[in-house]
Amino acid sequence: MKYTVYFLLTILLFISCKKTPEKALSTYTPLRGNITQKAMVVSAREEASKIGTEIMKKGGNAFDAMVATEMALAVAYPFAGSLGGGGFMVYRKADGETGALDYREKAPLAATKDMYLDENGEVVSEKSQVGALAIGVPGTIAGIFAVHKKFGTLPIEEILTPVVALANRGFVITEKQKLRFDHFKDLFIEVNKDTILFANSFNTGDTLKNKQLAITLERIIKNGASEFYTGETGKKLVNRVQEYGGIITMEDLAKYEAKWREPVRFTYNDLSIISMSPPSSGGVCLAQIMKMIEPYDLSKYGHNQTKTIQVITEAERRAYADRSFYLGDPDFTKIPIDTLIGEPYLQERMADFSFEKATLSSAINCGMIPGYESDETTHYSIVDQFGNAISVTITLNGAYGSKLYAPEIGTFLNNEMDDFSAKPGVPNMFGLIGAEANAIAPEKRMLSSMTPTIVEKEGKFWMSVGTPGGSTIITSVLQTILNVKEFGMTMQDAVNAPRFHHQWLPDVVVFEPNLFDTAILDSLRQKGYKIDEETSKIIGKVDGILVLPDGTLEGGADRRGDDTAVGF
Ligand code: GLY
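That is the input. Now the predicted structure with glycine docked in place:
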């Protein structure tokens, strides 16, 4: 309960950081994002976008830049960037080859299905959310080294040395970061039973140096991924976790592997979309929603108009119901992906939709109820001068993960175990509930919503896009693609535009407040939709890159954060 309050406060804090646009979209002047000729990185921090860009300027490719950007986010964006989390990457090489990397966290070997239940079988949610028992075996370092091994062109030392320099010279604390550090200070001290680097009192504009992280990165440069999984850094991690009551062992670290996966691929009119496969629900749900809405003429209905909102909402309702039942770690759960994203099934799924009246979620029969994830994730997109494109979403799960900090490494550790269903039918920290396919098992990967996505148009790379936002990730990526494709927006306008979200249960449509036409909201109410403008002041924080007709790149860096597009 206590931590549910923390979560709500976090959301409020996130909200208070946002600058409300002064104009509604109807009077919004179209805005182009940063435009570059050849290469670009869009991420949550300018420092990370710059370091990734510099690597490409030195002749590195998008994959080299990925390694640098991811580690720079671990330095400058500890809210979601770390060495102690995990993520997913979808790529499209210049020659058209596509693929995906899964470096999602895993349950430790000693994890059990009921590990978060008390003697009465009730979920003790704090245990999966805060502190050492909430931590999944981290995948980040295995992920960046897998990318480097397969596609890297520059030596690791050349790629990571600028990141070491950033950690040593420090990054400038933004207003949004200061508010978050202040907010979490007491919890950092409580969980760590001591102060930590990030529990100091900061002012906006202060410089924060993370010397310990610089030292860890130097060891990783020298020893590679094994430094983290079998070396000194791994031992420091395991000692810290076990000292605080966690169950991760050296064997867990040694057994961790990032996995190359086949991405989900589907078409939407003349677009070909490549997105993340399970253990993320992102690609499957995105495919289901887009295939369900494809027969409808959204551009005729208009952006954020009643009929458009209805069609998208009804498709989301049906896709999220399926997510709850069918999706989990593909190494543990058989998932009928081809059927789920196939046209016959999806046509049948939308057969009872009517513009006259909202479908009730209680009428969508799926038997199980989904688990959802937090919004403290981050996304970055990269395109290089060779024509390679990547889309990467990474997470610690909650803000600063479990809040357990590893001072001798210089990083926070995730609380990704909360993305499992602790018990079918019982809400997680976000008031949402989960299903059997996503039950805890040793070495299993917890279900995610992260949706790093690449879009091709007429066989060529067209867009790289993704976002944080927990269960709203999928619907935010969807709306951003539609904003460009159906409503002709620039990339910047597409990421800035007001968003809405439906996830089957609870049966409400969540809108970013005061940005939608009240007459449209009233017309939706009359058709039976429950409108919620209170729960979430912002939905997603999308970053993307779009190829313009003249071949230049436009960055879309979401106004909702400190996100920045940099390139050349
Ligand atoms: N923890 C957020 C996600 O994986 O979707």
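Residues 373-374, 377, 395, 397, 419, 448-450, 470 surround glycine (CB under 6 Å).
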